[in-house]
Amino acid sequence: MTDSTTSSHYAPGTHPDLPPPRRTTGVVGWVYKNLFSTPLNIVLTLVGVWILYLIVPPLLDWALLESVWTAENRTECWDKMEVAEEAACWAFIKSRLTLFIYGFYPEAERWRVNLSFVLLIFAILPVLYDKLPGRRHWMWYVAAFPFLVGWLLVGGLGLAPVETSEFGGFMLTLVIGVTGISFSLPLGIALALGRTSNLPALRILCVLFIEFIRGVPLIALLFVASTMLNYFLPPGTTFDLLMRVLIMVTLFAAAYIAEVVRGGLQGIPKGQVEAADSLGLSYWKAQRLIILPQALKISIPGIVNTFIGLYKDTTLVLIIGMLDPLGIGRSSLADAQWAGLAREVYLFIAVFFFLCCFGMSRYSLYLERKLHTGHER
Amino acid sequence: MTAAAPPQQTGALLRLWRNKEARSVIVQIVTVAVVCTLVAIGLHNVSVNLAAIGKEFSFDFLTAPAAYDITFSPFIDYTSRDTHLVATAVGVLNTLLVAVCGIVAATLLGFTMGVLRLSNNWLISRMVYVFIEFTRNVPVLLHILLVHGIVVTTLPAARQAINFGDTMFLSNRGFYVPAPVPEDGAGIVGVVFLVAVIAAIVFRRWAKRVQDETGTIYPVFWICAGVIVGATGLAFLATGAPLTWEVPALKGFNFQGGMALKPEFLALWLALTYYTSCFIAEIVRAGILAVSHGQTEASYALGLRPNRTLQLVIIPQALRIIVPPLVSQYLNLTKNSSLAIAIGYMDVVATIGGISLMQTGKEVETMIIVLGIYLVISLVISAFMNWFNRSIRFKER
Question: How many alpha carbons fall within 13 Å on the CB side of residue A66?
Answer without folding.
Answer: 16
